Automatic annotation (TrEMBL):
<feature type="transmembrane region" description="Helical">
    <location>
        <begin position="301"/>
        <end position="320"/>
    </location>
</feature>
<dbReference type="GO" id="GO:0005886">
    <property type="term" value="C:plasma membrane"/>
</dbReference>
<feature type="transmembrane region" description="Helical">
    <location>
        <begin position="171"/>
        <end position="194"/>
    </location>
</feature>
<dbReference type="Pfam" id="PF06808">
    <property type="entry name" value="DctM"/>
</dbReference>
<feature type="transmembrane region" description="Helical">
    <location>
        <begin position="40"/>
        <end position="60"/>
    </location>
</feature>
<feature type="transmembrane region" description="Helical">
    <location>
        <begin position="403"/>
        <end position="421"/>
    </location>
</feature>
<feature type="region of interest" description="Disordered">
    <location>
        <begin position="630"/>
        <end position="666"/>
    </location>
</feature>
<keyword id="KW-0812">Transmembrane</keyword>
<feature type="domain" description="TRAP C4-dicarboxylate transport system permease DctM subunit">
    <location>
        <begin position="114"/>
        <end position="550"/>
    </location>
</feature>
<feature type="transmembrane region" description="Helical">
    <location>
        <begin position="98"/>
        <end position="119"/>
    </location>
</feature>
<feature type="transmembrane region" description="Helical">
    <location>
        <begin position="12"/>
        <end position="34"/>
    </location>
</feature>
<feature type="transmembrane region" description="Helical">
    <location>
        <begin position="365"/>
        <end position="382"/>
    </location>
</feature>
<feature type="transmembrane region" description="Helical">
    <location>
        <begin position="126"/>
        <end position="151"/>
    </location>
</feature>
<dbReference type="InterPro" id="IPR011853">
    <property type="entry name" value="TRAP_DctM-Dct_fused"/>
</dbReference>
<feature type="transmembrane region" description="Helical">
    <location>
        <begin position="557"/>
        <end position="581"/>
    </location>
</feature>
<feature type="transmembrane region" description="Helical">
    <location>
        <begin position="72"/>
        <end position="92"/>
    </location>
</feature>
<keyword id="KW-0472">Membrane</keyword>
Length: 666
């Protein structure tokens, strides 16, 4: 850093940003392993450091050629305003915690400054959409008393709004920020450390070697990895950053757009929350609430979760076909050597340790802490190059800290929306209206319950989102004859999928800095990829056999709904990809999307006709592919066609470099 100071203000600011990012990463690791003595220091202090890192990083960029240096004045003003707002919060923090503080006019103006800085940081990091959502939420809190119907509330003054949104743990510094600091930061650091110690290129090489024969390649690997890890993680965002730091770059390298790569990771990570055996801790909570045995809940959730992930695999495959992303020719696939297998232990052993700790009842944060420690230790033991260049660990911490700063800004902004929702009670009023409107209609009740789950689950971890919705609306659904376990799974699905549903798609915002893409666009792609996830809960209600252990189970019903779900997945996937036996026009895509829905309509003659039509289309789509595979030649012969114009099928340079590296003795 001293050398940076001698080279000029640009490098000096970059050095300051590096130090701040490393400290932020170390704070995340420390809190995961040892906790924090002060809740205010943990939430507010970490956010302040994240904001400072984001501001100094942008200020350092002002000294690059062609940059607008006059904007440095605004950066300095924002940094000073952030410092004043945080300093004042710490001054009155203890009084705020016990509720014995009366706000002054100075406090209000300082709070406005803090919110203004947060909104500007959000705009810089993610663009205008989230800023507009936050502004609308603040406007609703202030002027909602003039609105009609359920949107009308009793009215709040500017002081009351500011007290909830900024000066409390219900707004900016609420639960999402706490979850990021205590859980997500350590997994961000884990991913960046894996890259720094040399496991990243090796894992990329393994991904190309193992998935080179498939068109989806690393996107398929990302789906499988996120499903396995996500079932043990209680946080969708933690899953996104824990696996996404490795998988998203792999998917982009294969030729998929950045927004699509982020969408695949967000959709796959969300599904882990309803994938047995752990289901992100929801299975244990559900068992306690319902009295249903834990293993029975896992059995009921198994087939729906498998169909969800099958739809992701099919969607990625057809997207690869549409973009003419071909399998890597065998001659270009990297060859694995002894050094690669040894270095893979830097990932496999920490992951195994993480799984062991989670299965023995330890917290995800503690599992992440020991995963980071073991990864660093194994890196020094197994990688001679790291021993020669130990500062690469600091580079990994820096990259992790910079990514963490962006995520902190995003969840702090989401805290504005959550604070307004809690203050105005809009979510609970919405749930009450749902019950009164639906009446005796099961389908309308389910639709309203879906909307309520999506609204109430915005920006919230899976467990609290599930508890709020099921306690408000669950009994009404059960009274209509829906089995208890299915009613609860229905809520879990939409509570989880709210994490990829714009505008407050927290999983998309977690993937955005990794994919370097617009979070709203990532959320749209994630919803498109995971569309079957929005249908499966309705299918469970009308076809209890899918849940295996619910009342009304029969083997005939199970076989019939499995066939129709497979046809639905194929119709949806081909409609969105625009690819069947060949390119599909808009009318055919619309017809397939409609047919995918009709095949699930709970009326036998409609089911039969739609299933016959969908089956005929699926056979017509697959017959040319089967015939082409039969003409490929004997097994072991590489008949991969040449890539199309502009299509790169060779592995990335990092993989080629890793593949050419000679084996090293550990």
């Amino acid at each position: 850093m001293a050398r940076s100071l001698l080279r000029g203000p640009g490098p000096a600011l970059s050095g300051i940003c590096t130090v701040g990012a490393v400290i932020l990463a170390l704070i995340g690791v420390w809190i995961a392993g040892f906790g924090s003595m002060s809740e205010t220091l943990m939430r507010v202090g970490t956010f302040a450091l994240a904001g400072a890192v984001a501001l100094t990083a942008r200020a350092a960029e002002r000294f690059e050629p062609g940059a607008r240096r006059w904007m440095l004045v605004l950066d300095a003003v924002l940094l000073a305003a952030l410092a004043v707002a945080i300093w004042r919060y710490f001054q009155i923090g203890q009084a705020l915690e016990i509720g014995l503080y009366f706000f002054t006019a100075t406090d209000l103006w300082i709070g406005y400054l803090g919110l203004a800085v947060l909104l500007e940081l959000t705009r810089r990091a993610f663009g205008w959409p989230l800023v507009i959502v936050c502004a609308l939420a603040l406007g609703y809190a202030i002027f909602g008393n003039s609105l009609p119907w359920i949107f009308r509330h009793s009215g709040y003054s500017l002081q009351q709004v500011l007290q909830v949104v900024w000066y409390s743990f219900d707004g900016v510094f609420g639960t999402p920020v706490s979850v990021v600091v205590t859980l997500i930061l350590v997994f961000i650091v884990f991913g960046s450390i894996l890259e720094a110690i040399g496991a990243g290129p090796v894992l990329l090489k393994f991904a190309f070697a193992l998935t080179g024969r498939t068109r989806g390649g690393p996107a398929h690997a990302a789906i499988a990895a996120s499903g396995v890890f996500g079932t043990m993680s209680g946080s969708v965002s933690g899953n996104v950053v824990g696996t996404g730091v490795m998988t998203i770059p792999m998917i982009v390298e294969r030729g998929f757009p950045r927004r699509y790569a982020g969408g695949v990771e967000a959709a796959a990570s969300s599904g882990g929350q309803f994938m047995p055996p752990i289901m992100g801790a929801v299975a244990f909570i559900m068992s306690d609430v319902t009295g249903i045995p834990y293993l029975e809940i896992c059995a009921a959730a198994l087939l729906p979760a498998l169909f969800y992930y099958a739809s992701l695999f099919v969607s990625v495959h057809l997207e690869a076909v549409r973009r003419d992303i071909r399998p890597i020719p065998r001659r270009d696939r990297p060859k694995l050597n002894r050094h690669d297998y040894v270095m893979s232990l830097c990932f496999l052993l920490p992951l195994a340790l993480m799984m062991f700790l989670l299965l023995t009842g330890r917290s995800p944060a503690l599992a992440g802490f020991w995963a980071v420690i073991s990864a660093v230790g194994l890196g020094f033991v197994l990688n001679p190059d790291l021993r020669r260049h130990p500062w690469r660990v600091l580079q990994g911490l820096e990259h992790g800290g910079r990514a963490a700063a962006q995520i902190m800004v995003a969840v702090a902004a989401i805290g504005i929306v959550i604070g307004v929702m809690n203050m105005t009670g809009l979510g609970l009023r919405f749930a009450g209206v749902i019950q009164s409107i639906a009446g005796d209609s099961l389908f309308l009740s389910l639709v309203m319950m879906m909307l309520g789950s999506l609204v109430l689950g915005m920006g919230m971890p899976t467990v609290p989102a599930y508890l709020i919705v099921i306690l408000v609306m669950g009994p009404a659904i059960e009274m209509m004859g829906v089995p208890t376990v299915i009613a609860h799974l229905f809520v879990v699905y939409f509570g989880v999928l709210s994490s990829i549903t714009p505008p407050v798609a927290i999983a998309a915002f977690a993937a955005a800095p990794i994919a370097r893409a617009d979070p709203v666009a990532i959320g749209v792609d994630a919803c498109r990829i995971a569309l079957i996830g929005f249908v499966i809960p309705f299918v469970m209600v009308y076809n209890p056999s899918l849940a295996l252990v619910a009342d009304g189970f029969s083997y005939e019903g199970l076989a019939w709904i499995c066939l129709r779900l497979m046809l639905c997945i194929w119709m949806f996937s081909t409609a969105f990809a625009g690819v069947g036996a060949g390119r599909l026009g808009v009318p055919m895509r619309v017809a397939r999307l409609a047919l995918g829905l009709i095949v699930l309509v709970p009326e036998l003659w409609i089911e039969a006709l739609a299933a016959a039509a969908a089956l005929a289309l699926a056979i017509a789509d697959l017959r040319p592919r089967i015939a082409a595979e039969g003409d490929d030649g004997p097994a072991g012969t590489d008949t991969t066609p040449a890539p199309g114009p502009g299509l790169a099928v060779s592995p990335p340079a990092s993989v080629q470099a890793a593949g050419n590296a000679p084996p090293r003795r550990a």
